[in-house]
C-alpha cells in the first residue's frame, strides 16, 4: 500500500513538472517579415553592371582590385565550387556577386554589417559567402605559389636576384609578419605577441620579381620567430637537404666558393643557407658593406608585404574573425597577389610604375606603398642567437666577395 502511494506521488510530481514547463514555455516569436526591404532590393548586380559599363574610368578595378577579364576568369574557375541552386523560396546569389562581395571585403576590410548596407545581402549570408569563396580561390589558385624543387629552378631564381639586386647565389628573401586579429575566445595569451596585441604569423619567401615562393600562415603570435620558422615545411626541407638546391659553386668572376642562400633580417638565426646582417654595433667597413648589400636584396619581401596590405586593406586593420578563418583570408590575399602579378591585364594597374621601391645606381626611391604603411603587419621579434661556425664562414665569404670582385660602384656612399 505504501509503495503504491509513493508511485502515485512520483507520477503526480512528474505531471506537475511537465505541465509547469508547458505553461512557462515562451511562445516562439513570429517573424515580422520574411525578408527586409533592403535585402529585397539587393543591388550587387546593378552595381557591377554600372561599374563594368564605365570600366575605362578605373572604378571597376578599384572596386574589386582587378580587371574585368581577370574577374571573369575567376568566375569560371570558382563557379562550379560556389554556385548554389535556386529554390521555390528564393533565388540563389549568383557567382559573380559572391566573388564581388568577397573581393570587396578583402579590398576594404570592412565589417560584414557595412557590406550588408552596401550590397543588400545580409551579414549572415556574407559571412558564409566570404569563407566559401576564399576556400574556393585557395583551391583554384594554389598553383600560383610553388616552391622550386630542382637545381635548375633555384638557379633561375638566383639569376634574377643577381641581375636585379646584385646579390649572387640568392634564392629568396624571407621575412615574417604578425597579422592582427581580434581576441580569440578562450585563447588566454596564446595569440598575444611581443607588442601586446593578438596576431597570427605570416612567414614568406619571395623571389626577385615580387612573387611569393612559399608562405606559412596561422602560427600563434606568442611563438618566437625561431619557433615560427622551425614549424614550417621550408625549414624541414632545408635541414634535411631535400630542398633541391644547386651544389656549392664559385661566385661570379671570383674564386670564392659559396652555397645558395636565403637573405633574412635579424629575426632569423644565421645558417649556412640563411644570411642575416652583422650586428649594427659593428664599425668595420667590410661588414657595413655586407649589411647594405644584404638589406638591399631583402627589401623585396618588405615591398611585397607593403603592396599586399596597401591593395587588400583587410590586412591594415584587425581581422574580426577566428584565427583559422583569418589564416584563410590571409592565404587568399597572397594567392591573389601572385595571380595579379602574373596577369597581363591587371598587373599594370595592380602594380603601376613606382609602386615598389626603385633602385637607381644605389639610390633608393621609396615605393608608393610606403605612403600607406604596412597597416597592422608587424615584424617578428629580433632575438640574438649563437650561430654555428660554418654559417659564419659562409657570411665571411660573401663579405669578402662584396668588398673585392663583387663590389658595386655606389656601395661605399651608403654605409
From TrEMBL:
GO MF term set: hydrolase activity; metal ion binding; nuclease activity
Subcellular location(s) per record: Nucleus
Annotated keywords: Hydrolase, Metal-binding, Nuclease, Nucleus
Domain spans labelled DDE Tnp4: 174-338
Main location: nucleus
Cofactor: a divalent metal cation
Homology family: Belongs to the HARBI1 family.
Name by which UniProt lists this protein: DDE Tnp4 domain-containing protein
